[in-house]
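ARCHIVE CARD
Drawer: 12
Card no.: 0347
Subject: one protein chain, sequence and derived structure
Cross-reference: see card 0346
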Amino acid sequence: MVELKPNFKLLFESKNWITLKNTLVGYDTQQIAQFMEEISESEEIVLFRLLNRNQAKEVFQLLTYEKQEQIIEGLANSSIELSNLLNDIEPDDRTALFEELPGQVTQRLIQYLSPKERTIATKLLGYPENSIGRLMTPEYVALKPHYTIAQSFDHIRKFGVDSETLNVVYIVDKDWKLVDDIRIKEVILATPEQLVSDLMDNRFVALNVLDDQEGAIKTFQDYDRVALPVVDDEGVLLGIVTIDDIMDVAEEESTEDFHKFGSIQSAIANPLKERIFDLYKNRIVWLMVLVFMNVFSGAALSHFEDVIQTVVSLVFFLPLLIDSGGNAGSQSATLMIRSMTIGDVKLNDWYNLIGKEVLVSFLLGVTMAVGVSIVAAVRSPEIIMVVSLSMLLTVMVGSLIGLLLPFIFTKLKLDPATASAPLITSIADICGVLIYFSMASWYFNF
């Protein structure tokens, strides 16, 4: 495929709009969307206006929320273009965009929708934030059990044009309650005279409209589906959620957890475009918390001042010991948080994991104790016993802290990712200092 960038630049600079418009018809929408992420705001508005209506819809849905907002602002003076765009994009994608915008802006944009689309938009936005209802689309194909396969294909041809996906069709009764879902392959392979009910096994997986979005990720993984139906408490089919929407949620959750592991309050989309104060605000809270937590480490050190003055060589191994405890804790926490997120580990599994973690951390501690004793034999032979035992205990305590903290946060209804590496490291540091110098005080009879 010919590269878009050189052709666009040449035609854009020459202001050859007609040729540029005709040229864009032959380009893939994914390619156009990628290019629009790279150009200036003024250029992207010009390029977007040159797209035909179908291209505009597809390209818009591929852009980042930031670019989508810029497009909407650029089209603000053209009510027809803006109305066409907002009415054309898929309801679930439109809801996701509206969630990113200030409330006043969303209310203004809803007025550009047709009565039908406005009803859909307000209904979807009426569901709780982070619920499946915010992700679903009402655009799907539903069949009745008494339809013949021939009638079903007529129905699919009539209503399938606007469907989000045709990989699966849904079977509903007279009250529109979901009774089954059937892969389109089964419909295609059936004979025209067969009834839809002949293909049914009455086994299906559905999401509740009030289910949490993050929990739906595991359902998609477990059942390997490209789309899942969404029902209310009475089993009435309300819409469907597709895998692309769930992948967006998974990406957002991973980004959020990644930032929390770095003790950042909320996700930062692009640090180049964030305001300085917002960057500061997102980072300062946990940094200040960790500052005050480390005051305890300083207090512990001052308590053992006599030991430190008498056996100065102890200071040489202090960073190594406390870092080892923090690193072991971070490893353990990462494993637990990951396992809890994907559902492999439940809250009541903590007791079963302690015994295993004690054995694993003991083996890790012994191995690291051997390593540090070799260093101590060369550097300060008189404290070999102290640093070896301290290393063993520090690694074990750090690992157990890393294991238990995510469970404690989950029990307190907090995000376990908040038990991030810096927090665990700080707690492990305090414990490491206390273990190390308590062991030294005992060994040297202070």
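Annotation on reverse: The longest strand covers residues 178-183. The two ends are 77 Å apart (CA to CA).
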